[in-house]
Amino acid sequence: MPRSIFCCSAFALAAVASLAAAPHAAGQGQGLNGAMAKPEGSQPAGPALSQACGDLETRLSALEAKLADQQREPGGLEWHDTSGQQFTQRWTGRIMGDGVLIAGQDSASLAAFGNQSNYFEFRSVRIAVDGQGYGVFDYKLELELEPEFGGAQAVRMRDLHVGIAEIPWFGYVRLGNFKEPFSLEQMYSRKFITFLERSLADVFVPRRHVGMCAYQHTADERFTWAFGAFIQDVDQDLKERVDDNQGIDLPVRVTWNPIYTAGGRGVLHLGLGYVWTDDRDDLLRFAVAPETHEMDAFIDTGILTVSDYHRLGGELAVVYGPFSVQSELIYVAANGIAGLADQDFCAAYLFGSWFLTGEHRVYKRASGAFARVKPNTNFWLVRTVDQDIDWGWGAWELAIRWSYLDLTTNGIPRPQRNGKNGLANNLTLGLNWYWNPHMRLMFNYIHSWASVVDTIGLADGVADTDILSMRMQVDF
Description:
Helix content is 14%, strand content 47%. By secondary structure, it is mainly beta. Strand 4 and strand 5 form a beta hairpin.
């Protein structure tokens, strides 16, 4: 061992130094031969030197072990000083291209909503950079490059925030523009959702706002909680809001994961979320298209005058091997102003999915949300050197979803209603083909039933619409 060689060399040098000083210690009449003469009854030097080297090596090992113990935290983790580490950089992006075909509209749908158009769009084109540094800090800058917002405001602000970890009692704290902690479906990225669009219930979910939020979880990650305060409606295109009355959202979300087995192939998730909103201008409006992006809103409350409103949501998700079920119920209670009637609305969805190739949805316990699916085998199709064809299947997933939305207003006379109040039900069938963890093809069939209450000359009744849609998605 190098340490043994070092110890022995040190002892050898000490011995030589002692021998060199021997003539002076022995007296003038004693020469070199006298100094080198072997004392009577002495033992050979080899065994004694080896023993001394061994003792020194043992002491060095004990000192190293003691130093290592001092550099360990109470939990047994090694401590490293990263307070001077500069920020890292990781570039990411996504491209999503959607094609939507209006397969059919009955007479009620045509009368209520007009002839809806087929379309193609780049649903999302984003570029982002994120990183970590200085021990406990992180950052993210994400911009939406989709040009539909038009003109000079074609670039839209998405995630734009900094974070601080390991804050006592609060855990991780984030400041900037990001999603409020509410709704399981909203808490994971569109890159990972099972259908092209989120459910009808998503109309009640607050989007990205400017604010701050604290995130924490227990050591075993069974419980998570988050709470924050956000300024309402900072324009994501202009990146600003100039107004004395900014409005405020106060959200809180808690989750419980009592079952997590087989590396995530068995999961039970329960969650509860709440948001109180003091609206900036005392106006409220909910409008939603039938789980597409560019179609007209089928159900619309119109503009309502309210002082504030509350949102309460319940979450449930189960993963059992390749099968999964997910559901949410969201209730909204709005307080009228100046003697106007209070309003309440509700929405729900339930979906199930099945991976035909055996994969499972990936659940992240620390965030209480789902993440990226990793196929057991990636998709490829190549010709081998033997001129044969070789291929991989990728991952295949079937899914079905029912979603429900009630935007019927209360206490407002029909002639004064200014929206398409009513009920909507959607049935969506989905087929997803995952080529690899970062690419997939998605196919959806949507049947929409919209029950529109007579407001602006529209006849009461159910409007039926059929929609086919597909998406090619890649992220990096």
